[in-house]
Write a structure and sequence with these properties.
By secondary structure, the protein is an alpha+beta fold. It contains 20 helices and 28 strands. The protein starts with 15 loop residues before the first helix and ends in an 8-residue tail after the last helix.
Amino acid sequence: MSAPRFLGARVKRVEDPRFLRGQAQYVADLQPAGLLHLVFVRSPHAHAEVTRIDVAAAAGASGVAAVLTAADVAHLTPKPIAIQPPGLRVPPHAPLAAHTVRYAGQPVAAIAAADPYGARDAADLVQIEYAPRSPAVDPARALEPGSPLVHPSLDSNLAFEHAWTAGDVDGAFSRAAHVVQGRFPHPRLAAVPLEPRGCMARYDGRLLTVWISTQMPHAVRADLAVVFGLPEHRIRVIAPDVGGSFGCKTGVYDDEIVTVAAALRLGRPVKWIETRSENLLVTSHGRGQVHEAALAVGADGTFLALRVQGLADLGAYPETFSASPPLLAGRLVTGAYRIPAASVVVRGVYTHKTATAAYRGAGRPEAAYLIERLADLAADALGIDPVEIRRRNFIRPEDFPYAVPSGLTYDTGRYALTLDRALTLAGYEECRAVQARARAEGRLLGVGIATFVETAGSAPSRALPYAGWEYGAVRVEPSGHVVVVTGTSPHGQGQETTFAQLVADALGLDLDGVTVLHGDTEVVPAGFGTGGSRGTCVGGVPVYLAAESVKAKARLLAAHLLEAAPEDVVFDGGRFHIRGTPARALSFADVAREAHRGARLPAGMEPGLEAACTWDSPGFTVPFGAYVSLVEIMPETGQVRVLRFVGVDDVGTVLSPLLVEGQLHGGIAQGLAEALREEIVYDDAGQCLTTTLADYAVPKAADVPHLELNYTETPTGVNPLGAKGVGEAGTVGAPAAVMNAVCDALRPLTARTLEMPAGPEKVWAAVRRARAGAEPAGA
């Protein structure tokens, strides 16, 4: 068996040439004959009664084919909600608002017209009268008696409450030498994919075809089957090239349901393309959680117990994965540490705002931030270095697999190893020396550390009901070219490259001898899709197993053709030969050709060379890492400059180092922005104030320092590849590392913890208050 040629090598992405040459095709590029364009009329109010709608002028406008209102979609079945914790109260939800609007931007009517500009003009002719009502905007106040009800039929704004307790929490707190505590908000964030959402539908009387920018085409097909009462075999969903998602393109939204409804009604293709302002306003937001937490610490620095109260702002309606981030955050709050006792209460709350749901990290950044800030506060209380308190409490390598109090099981980990390497690469002692010299000069320099864990992949469990399976198939053509079919539907992760690497190495091919197909429910019979960093550690496994099955069948056929026993046939370098007699050989292409001819097959062997596999993951993988950040605060402006960022990640076996590096660059950039810049802001009237990129501060190149990255490899036993996941790691560890550095920089001035995002105005105000003596000085 020859050594792998591609796995573990820095292979350039095979999908990139079509993007670089402008040959990619997105939903917006589709222009079939007879196309109608859809534009929505959206509520300007967060909470109001709809007292009158007059669509006559719009319906009579030039080029308008139809105006849809709530009555036109009232017959549709409500869309399914994938993640439903026990007790989740799901309110009635129609794709177009009828009598009440519950968030600013909620669609009330839709215009289908021959061109998008005519549709936009006609939308302005729709006359809607509203009777505004007071909104519930703050989730904590929304739970108070007398707060405006988002859904009066539910009698309160509580969507669900999920709680668990393990160990003697009260006893641990009673004997603790120190108790540190804090309030740790995570602001709402927008995913801001490069391509906003888009959907085009066409119905020919038999088959409904839907092109949609999504992570999960098979899930979209299943949801549409429920909503429209059609059998799934009469629905084809195609995800063409998808320009990013970061979690916000799962399930189906109201806009997409109305687009399909219009196509079914009119018998013509209908397309809706989201504007950037719509994307920021109505596409699901991420985070929106706040945790109040306390950590009991022994005199020797041992973590004894943890208490957490979490509140999640779900917005007005639950989307497909709205409940999963707060649930997952609550399950990972103990982080990388041995904490024998913990209690967590998480409550989801309805408010008059856009829904929150999955966004890159989806619960893991919230948990990591909480425990990493508490670890720093505990180190400060004991007067020891933040590095030392982490070392004293790490789960040890010999403890794995390790069951944490929440019920999750961590597969493998070497947390001290990644931390030590990060400290060495950063020159931690020199960083502290530089900080000391800066402080002597009156400069505000901070050093922040985060050692974090996350989950990647998915598995069915009572605590987190995620699907753990994926589909993969490998089909060899008569020429010897190989087609891979996968239920994973990438949108930038690079699985066309990774899966080609897997199969090319297994079958002794070049990368250009493998084509990866995905994103079309007519081509791919089944699939879960992307999400939760499951692409390779779940989706790659059935592809790998199918390739091994193909190779095994090819070996049997080669042995028959070579008139040898299968155990005497060696596959090496793309050739089958008899052991010890390399001259007697058949190429893989030779065997493929004979497999399809069928004339020389052994008795009982079917023609062709292909295999399909569905693999069900037995559990999560748990990637981990250690980040070190050095920041400087400019006190006169409040600007935080990230001077250095060092990261060491462990994502199990690294199959494609270049792709791992790219995923970390993107995730860390988003994590830095979360800590320092980004926030979706609402006013007291429920109006979103950040609906353009002039208001919502996505990071620019100048905001991201040179990233000093490295990795260790601790393979998992959860899957045969040994791979974990990497897509979200940067967003998990970076906010905690940077915020620990910001708070460390402010310690000479104040003991108060700053909340995210640590933007210039907030930092400047904190410095000003501290220098005025309005806050207690730090150590």
